[in-house]
Amino acid sequence: MEYHVVDPDVVDPEPDRPSEKRSISDAAELDQVGVHVYGVAPGEQVPYVYHYHDEQEEILYVLEGTLSVETPEETFEVEAGQAFVVEPESPHRAYNPAGADAPVRLLAVGAPAVDDAHEYEP
């Protein structure tokens, strides 16, 4: 058996991202689930692009602030203490609007940990 205590604040952020991303799953060397903490300033988005996944399920749990999540049908406002759940093949784009008063901090969980994201063109 193995156990890990990971402080996301001491995990190095991943370079070249549209927002700050710190990978708990990489720090703990997990390979079945992706777990990341994001810090998203006003005007920044979480993923690189509007996208969907073939098989990965995602949960975006907002720790601080209000996250906007655009889908083809509507834009959701997800407040601190709420989770946004994304099923496979569901296009979405998570961001903090440019006019927001504060940054957003969120925990993103995706499983299985596969690289199956595809850009979505609305």
Give the spatial strand order of the biggest sheet.
Answer: 1-2-9-4-7
Biggest beta sheet summary: 5 strands, antiparallel
Q: Into which percent range does the helicity of residues fall?
A: under 10%
Count the E strands.
10
Q: Mean pLDDT, nearest integer? A: 96
Q: How many DSSP H or I helices?
A: 1
Give the helices and strands as they follow along the chain: EHEEEEEEEEE
The oligomeric state is single chain
Please give the alpha-carbon distance between the first and last residues: 46 Å
Shape: globular
Strand content: 35-45%
- Low-pLDDT segments: none
Q: How big is the Rg?
A: 14 Å
Instruction: Briefly note the structural class of the backbone.
Output: mainly beta
Keywords: Metal-binding
InterPro entries: Cupin_2, GPI/OXD, RmlC-like_jellyroll, RmlC_Cupin_sf
Region (Disordered): 1-25
Protein name: Cupin 2 conserved barrel domain protein
Summarize the structure.
It comes from Halalkaliarchaeum desulfuricum. The chain contains one helix and ten strands, in the order βαβββββββββ.
Describe what this molecule looks like in 3D.
By secondary structure, the chain is mainly β. It has a domain at 32-91. 3% of the residues lie in helices and 41% in strands. The protein contains 1 helix and 10 strands; from the N terminus they run βαβββββββββ. A 5-stranded antiparallel β-sheet has the order 1-2-9-4-7. It has a 3-stranded antiparallel β-sheet with strand order 6-5-8, with no helix packed on it. The longest helix has 4 residues, at 24-27. The mean pLDDT is 96.
